[in-house]
Design a protein that fits this description.
Chain A has twelve helices and no strands. With 323 residues, chain A is mainly alpha-helical. Chain A has one domain. The longest helix of chain B is centred in the N-terminal third of the chain and has 22 residues.
Chain lengths: 323, 157
């Protein structure tokens, strides 16, 4: 029998590999799905030629292409910050998965403050954006990073306040517990305002199109990752799509009843709900035009924040009356 | 609820309905190499040499008007010179460099003998630029196989 510490380490490595595999496979599917959805919305077909039915191997071809690209470093950039930024973009996206249950008991670490942990970790993605913008020493990157930083404050606060109302209603920060509390009724019905605020905030946090001020390609070339190419750029994309997956799974767990559903096993239900939300996010991305930075501020501070505060008040009053 | 929120929600919902409609529609992309692309009326690609349908001989008399009218100067035509040193009324060679052809139709319009016609063959691409150099026999063969342009002055009466 192996010594205890070695067992721990091996278990940890196994879990990490599994999580990494899950994340990567899903990100590859998501990138393919995004191209298909955008193609069909624009009356195109999307990837078709590269391997398999409907071009499902397109993402692998992209990975090979990106690996073969030149590794470029901007001359006057800040090397350490620049080199670290892609990893910092991907690491928090991955870390969230260690507390995110995919099914009943299907979780790496069932943390008591899981929701708080997720909220804290996902805020890190803006750090990577800022590191990339600063390290590139490029005006477009820096403007993009500054915008992303300004964006952070206007969506993060309402988002967290929306989750406060959820915590009030369920009385716990443990995600498995939250799922268990909504066996009778999905939380989206009593907490619709929280769902709305959180979903809008999640799309803003993902830097997806109605709120993609950080990379606004029509104004800022590619925003904060203008100077990145090849596999470093792929890390940013991987982080972005992993964040899309995590936030969709989180919304499906917290608001859509998680793994409660008939017939199919729990993790299938979670993935079905998550992919439905992912589709909606893609639908939104290819429908709505980008907002200006002041419009985003307006939306965050004048609409979402009062809405989430109102929701907390309503939830509090309801809890007090019922108790 | 304030009116502007309702207006925003309605307009967002409308936009999403439009994109969903488009998504459920059949894509307009045509899969070109597998499916043929339709020839649009009036599409021109290369001037080809017409022949008399009864005798099978080319209509061309090697008068050289097409070569003189050609703006990029890509038509090279010379008449046959007989034993007596006089020029005959048929071409010795008729070469055409498609790589520089601007598909202007001026050679067809200049031809007084109805010997040239614009073809609508759109599959003439080649990997080597030398393969875009057509001689008399190739141009005559193209006329027999390729669809011709039937409108926009492509054909003489």
């Amino acid at each position: 029998m192996l010594p205890l510490w070695l067992q721990w380490v091996l278990w940890g490595i196994l879990k990490a590999v599994l999580v990494l595999l899950f994340v990567t496979v899903n990100a590859i599917i998501l990138i393919w799905l995004e191209r298909k959805v955008s193609g069909h919305i624009q009356n195109r077909i999307g990837p078709l030629r590269v391997g398999g039915p409907a071009g499902v191997l397109q993402s692998f071809a992209d990975i090979i292409k990106l690996l073969a690209k030149e590794d470029f470093f901007p001359k006057r950039g800040d090397p350490w910050v620049w080199w670290l930024a892609p990893s910092v973009a991907f690491a928090p996206a991955l870390m969230v998965f260690f507390v995110l249950p995919i099914g009943p008991h299907l979780v790496v670490q069932d943390m008591n403050v899981g929701l708080l942990f997720i909220v804290a970790i996902t805020s890190f993605s803006v750090l990577s954006v800022f590191m990339a913008g600063w390290g590139s020493n490029d005006k477009y990157s820096l403007i993009g990073a500054m915008r992303a930083g300004a964006q952070l404050f206007s969506y993060e606060l309402p988002m967290v306040l929306a989750l406060v109302a959820v915590t009030l209603a369920t009385g716990t920060l443990n995600i498995s517990e939250i799922v268990a509390r909504q066996q009778g009724m999905w939380l989206i019905f009593p907490q619709f305002l929280a769902f709305l605020v959180f979903y809008i905030g999640a799309i803003a946090e993902l830097n997806r199109t109605p709120f993609d001020l950080g990379e606004a390609e029509s104004e800022l070339v590619a925003g904060y990752h203008t100077e990145y190419s090849g596999i470093r750029w792929a890390m940013f994309m991987l982080g972005e799509y992993t964040n899309l997956l995590t936030s969709s799974i989180l919304v499906s767990l917290v608001f859509l009843g998680g793994w409660s559903g008939p017939l199919l096993p729990g993790w299938v239900w979670v993935l079905i709900k998550a992919y439905l939300l992912i589709f909606v996010a893609m639908w939104i991305r290819w429908t709505l035009p980008r907002v200006r930075i002041d419009q985003l501020m307006d939306l965050g501070w004048k609409f979402l924040l009062p809405l989430s505060l109102l929701n907390i008040a309503l939830t509090g009053v309801y809890m007090a009356v019922m108790a | 609820m304030p009116a502007w929120i309702r207006r925003a929600a309605v307009s967002i919902a409308k936009g999403h309905r439009v994109t969903l409609d488009q998504m459920l529609r059949r894509p307009i992309t045509s899969l070109y190499p597998e499916e043929p692309v339709p020839h649009f009326p009036g599409f021109r690609s290369i001037p080809v040499l017409k022949a008399n349908e009864e005798t099978g001989k080319l209509n061309c008399t090697a008068c050289g008007l097409c070569a003189r009218s050609c703006p990029p100067q890509i038509i090279f035509v010379e008449s046959v010179v007989g034993d007596d040193g006089r020029r005959k009324q048929w071409p010795a060679f008729f070469n055409l460099d498609l790589s520089r052809c601007m598909v202007c139709n001026l050679c067809v319009e200049a031809c007084p003998f109805d010997a040239l016609e614009m073809s609508a063959d759109n599959e003439l691409s080649a990997y080597d630029v030398r393969d875009l150099f057509f001689n008399m026999e190739e141009l005559a063969a193209l006329w027999k196989t390729a669809p011709a342009v039937r409108i926009a002055g492509g054909q003489k009466r």
